[in-house]
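User: Could you check the structure of this?
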Amino acid sequence: MKRVITAFKEHKEFKRKKHWDANILRFQTEIVTPPHYADTVEIIVNHGAVGDIHIGGKHCKVTDHLAYYIPPNAVHSIEYQKSDGYVSVLKINHLTLKQYLDLESVLEGCGHSFESLPYYIDDPDVVGSIERTYFESESIFTVLTSTLGFFKWLTELGESQPETFAAHRSDDIRRIIEWSEQNFTDSPTLEEAAAVFGYNKNYFCQKFKAETGVTYVSYLNCLRINYACAQLKKGLSVTEVCYSCGFENPSYFIKLFRTMVGITPRKYAAGGE
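Assistant: Sure, the predicted structure tokens are below.
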């Protein structure tokens, strides 16, 4: 069974008095994270994982670089293939960290911003240091030192390699994501969605695909199937779930569900693999 993650506006609960977090994500099955964004800083450290990543309108293979820096509010999506590899996901709550270290002000003082920094990292020493710190340390002093050193290195990389792409925040894409999450059950057409944001259909489709790496229709289907999974777990029938998700044809819904999740809706509802 495939795992479809659809966090969209992602919210991470940090432990009390702890402004950083580290987790490991493994890939015993394919994992898809459709376009989403978060208030926090995220660093993804690759350990043999395979797939594609889109950050702020930029795309590359997960295998191309050692790690990826994702600034706050940058729309990103990742498609991980099944493999024996894993990634470490490091998160920094820079908003609550301000009482100790205002990263945003530090960057501004150096002529940078979260969005201006390079989004990929290929220095194993720098990445390994912050990764070990976030997993192993409970000391705010150690974490602050490591975090500041990491961002110092990123600013120096950006200055020495101006051609290095930086991710960017697209407020339009964020608004599209928010609107879509609220309206996907109404089955909006491409024309209707585009009109909401003052675009024609062709430009809307091109912009969304360029910024996120997926088509808008694929994104809507991810929203619907994610919602379908939740409704099936509540005990609703397959037909009821089909219509509640905005699908008009149960046969198409079942086929799409099986393609995206790996099993039929009925088997999923029964807890099957």
